Amino acid sequence: MRRLIFLTVLVLFASLQGCKKEGNLNLVEATVVIDCTGLYLKVDGLDYKVCNEETLANYSSGDKVKATFVKIKDCTARAIICDLYHPYESWINVMKVE
Fold first, then answer.
1. DSSP readout, 20-60?
2. Fewer CB within 10 A of the end CB, N or C, for the chain?
3. pLDDT tens-digit profile of 33-43?
4. pTM, whole model, 2 decimals?
């Protein structure tokens, strides 16, 4: 009986691990940063380049927002606007903004 309970708990734990989502799905405080290289969210001193910039179209550089986002590997909506280098942690897609 103890063995059956142990195996059940083990299977349940393993199945919950498979449901873990990648990225940050909680609302976090961020600052909008806009320059000629694109649009970024600054979170805890780190810049994250926004791929779906239209989600922040109504915001200006310096605005404080609460946002939910997920990290992505690459962005196909890239447009080179200037030759300025702006270091960033990763590409993100913004899911929600308040």
1. PPPSEEEEEEEEEEEETTEEEEEETTEEEEES-GGGGTT--
2. N
3. 999 999 999 99
4. 0.71
